[in-house]
Write a structure and sequence with these properties.
By secondary structure, this protein is an alpha/beta fold. The protein has two domains: 208 residues, inorganic pyrophosphatase (n-terminal core), CATH 3.90.1640.10; 139 residues, Roll (Diaminopimelate Epimerase, Chain A, domain 1). It is 40% helix and 19% strand. It contains twelve helices and twelve strands. A six-stranded parallel beta sheet has the order 3-2-1-4-5-6. Strands 7-8-9-10-12-11 form a six-stranded mixed beta sheet, with helices on both faces. Strand 11 and strand 12 form a beta hairpin. The radius of gyration is 21 Å and the shape is globular. Bound molecules: manganese (II) ion (MN). The site of manganese (II) ion has 6 residues, from loops.
């Protein structure tokens, strides 16, 4: 086993993965790839996309980091701006078939992106999937590295870096990359509390290259007034039963969607509360949807299972929600009921969905009539 200069020894298995990935990149040299991030990219996904772009550039591969929804969390906006990471919102209904020679999925397996169908219609081959969520079978990539045991997907990319795919040196781009990956690991693992051994190993490798001042600046963005307002409403509307705190916040703009997980994080800080769920109707570009966020500190609550069992499936067979350790989310399209209404009808619509969703969760918990 070879020893890196900083004392981190890569494991044999990951060295093999890095080798396979390098072979694939060599074959695909000079191409243009689309790196698909989830619709609402988080720091883990953004840093992985950035890492892939830097790695692939060595084989003359150009990459667009693309998402289909929105980047709304103040920390994520600060991250892409301060670390100079270009990410692109895909607004095209159809992706021109000759634009990309391959797609790459990081921190997801195609189930959290609205771009998958569009890429399939454009016949863009799926090249690579690197993820740390449970195995899903939506895509058939040429190269897959799926490791649910790792806390952050960013840690898998750090392994590739130190296994020789792109040894970091002291230059601005690498400083930004190391800082992005460190932010990805920290935010994905609840400030390292949920981190696994691989995540600490990765963080140790990044440490000499990471810019602490920049990281500090990213982590201490102040909340917008809108986010504060959503948190206030969430606090006011909350209902607590058996340790579950559930709150509907009504209508909110797509730009403020990220207020939902932030409100859930905040509600989770109350005494006796172990699980917080906050949801609202988000006015998207085309359609209204219910968006919700779940946060839990209880080991016996699996967000994925809880949301799937509480909310069930839509007509097409896919679930309304899912999650990972400690966190989850859900989206319910309003379909025919979507669209601007007069205030009375809008209120009626919200009241109905609010009551229905609360009932589903409280039934699941067995606390309907408290
Ligand atoms: Mn992740």
């Amino acid at each position: 086993m070879k020893k890196e200069s900083n004392g981190i020894s890569p494991n044999v298995d990951s060295t093999r993965m890095a080798g396979q990935l390098a072979n694939l990149l060599k074959e695909r040299g000079g191409e243009r790839h689309i790196v698909v991030l989830q619709d609402f990219p988080d720091p883990d996904a953004i840093s992985c996309g950035f890492a892939y772009r830097c790695i692939a550039a060595q084989w003359g591969i150009e990459c667009d980091l693309v998402y289909g929804g929105r980047i709304s969390h103040q920390e994520n906006i600060a991250m892409v701006n301060l670390l100079n990471i270009t990410v692109t919102l895909c607004e095209l209904e159809e992706i021109p078939p000759d634009r990309y020679q391959g797609s790459v999925f990081v921190d997801g397996q195609g189930t959290t992106s609205c771009l998958v169908d569009r890429l399939e219609r454009a016949r863009v081959p799926v090249l690579i999937v690197v993820d740390h969520h449970a195995q899903q079978d939506r895509l058939q990539p040429l190269f897959a590295d799926i490791r649910p045991s790792v806390g952050a997907c960013a840690s898998i990319f750090v392994e590739y870096l130190c296994d020789g795919l792109l040894p970091l040196v002291s230059k601005t781009e690498h400083r930004n990359l190391a800082t992005a990956l460190m932010h990805g690991i920290i935010s994905e693992t609840g400030a390292l509390i949920e981190a696994q051994a691989q995540d600490f190993t990765a963080a140790a490798y990044l440490q000499p290259f990471c810019d602490r001042e920049l990281l500090n600046e990213i982590l201490h963005q102040q909340r917008s007034q809108k986010v504060m307002e959503v948190i206030r409403v969430a606090l006011e509307n909350r209902v607590i039963r058996s340790g579950y705190c559930i709150s509907g916040v009504g209508y909110l703009r797509a730009a403020d969607r990220d207020a939902l997980p932030q409100a859930a994080d905040f509600l989770l800080t109350e005494e006796m509360v172990h699980t917080a769920i906050v949801f609202g109707i988000v006015l998207g570009d085309r359609e209204e949807e219910i968006h919700g966020s779940l946060r839990t500190t209880k080991l016996t609550v699996s967000p994925d299972q809880f949301l799937k069992e509480s909310l069930g499936k839509m007509v097409g067979g896919s679930h309304y929600g899912g999650g990972k350790a400690r966190a989850g989310g859900f989206e319910i399209p309003l379909g025919f009921l979507s669209g601007h209404d007069d205030p009375d009808l809008a209120k009626l619509k919200w009241d109905t969905f609010n009551a229905k969703i609360q009932k589903k969760f409280f039934t699941k918990i067995g606390a309907e009539d408290e």
